[in-house]
UniProtKB/TrEMBL annotation:
<feature type="domain" description="HD/PDEase">
    <location>
        <begin position="47"/>
        <end position="159"/>
    </location>
</feature>
<dbReference type="InterPro" id="IPR003607">
    <property type="entry name" value="HD/PDEase_dom"/>
</dbReference>
<protein>
    <submittedName>
        <fullName>GTP pyrophosphokinase</fullName>
    </submittedName>
</protein>
<dbReference type="GO" id="GO:0008893">
    <property type="term" value="F:guanosine-3',5'-bis(diphosphate) 3'-diphosphatase activity"/>
</dbReference>
<dbReference type="InterPro" id="IPR052194">
    <property type="entry name" value="MESH1"/>
</dbReference>
<dbReference type="Pfam" id="PF13328">
    <property type="entry name" value="HD_4"/>
</dbReference>
<dbReference type="GO" id="GO:0016301">
    <property type="term" value="F:kinase activity"/>
</dbReference>
Length: 207
């Protein structure tokens, strides 16, 4: 398992680029960063890496590759998996970041995760409808999550898992990104990157 230095508050704020934000935005960033450190603490990804590495990578992708500068979508990216890995943290998120922000996180989380139950018939259809209804900024975060997961999956030796992910990406997320690319330059850039890397990975796993 890959080792890395512990992630602390200063590191999270640096990845967010919070030094360039207004004082009020910096204060909100510190609250969100502290929540991220709390919610993701002790959790690992399937690869055995600290879970917080993933949302930080999504933030970095949005900032450095897509050109996102607005604080709120970057904070959404930082906490986009909070309710998936810790649904019980919802009250904490509402208390510190507000109901509207937490509602956006709920809309980016599958129902069976929120309800802490196994996935059942109909969940996938509802989850796709939920993602398709996301407003542009939230959809951008969701697509950035897909792009980072695609890059992460490239290191997986499980070809069946890679093929399943690519099938869902090709059947659903790429058409969704294509339909949204006219909504702004960030979504247009995201679509181009997602499409290019999807094609590359499909060629790699093709028998």
């Amino acid at each position: 398992m890959r080792r890395m230095d512990p992630i602390d508050l200063d590191h999270v704020l640096t990845v967010l680029g919070a030094a360039a934000w207004s004082p009020d935005e910096q204060s909100r960033a510190r609250v969100a960063a502290d929540l991220a450190l709390t919610v993701y603490d002790g959790r690992t990804r399937d690869q055995g890496t600290p879970y917080l590495e993933h949302p930080l990578a999504v933030v970095r992708l949005l900032r450095t590759e897509i050109g996102v500068r607005r604080p709120e979508p970057l904070l959404l990216a930082l906490l986009h998996d909070a309710l998936e890995v810790a649904p019980e943290s919802e009250a904490l998120l509402v208390h510190h970041l507000g109901g509207p922000f937490t509602a956006r996180l709920r809309s980016m989380t599958a129902d069976h995760r929120l309800e802490q139950r196994p996935k059942s018939d109909g969940d996938e259809t509802r989850w796709r409808a939920k993602q398709a209804a996301l407003p542009p900024e939230d959809l951008l975060v969701r697509l950035a999550d897909r792009l980072h997961n695609l890059r992460d999956l490239a290191a997986s030796p499980n070809l069946d898992r890679r093929r399943r992910f690519l099938q869902t990406l090709g059947d659903f997320h790429l058409p969704l990104a294509d339909a949204a690319r006219g909504l702004g330059p960030h979504l247009e850039t995201m679509h181009a990157r997602l499409h290019a890397e999807y094609v590359h990975h499909v060629q790699e796993v093709r028998p």
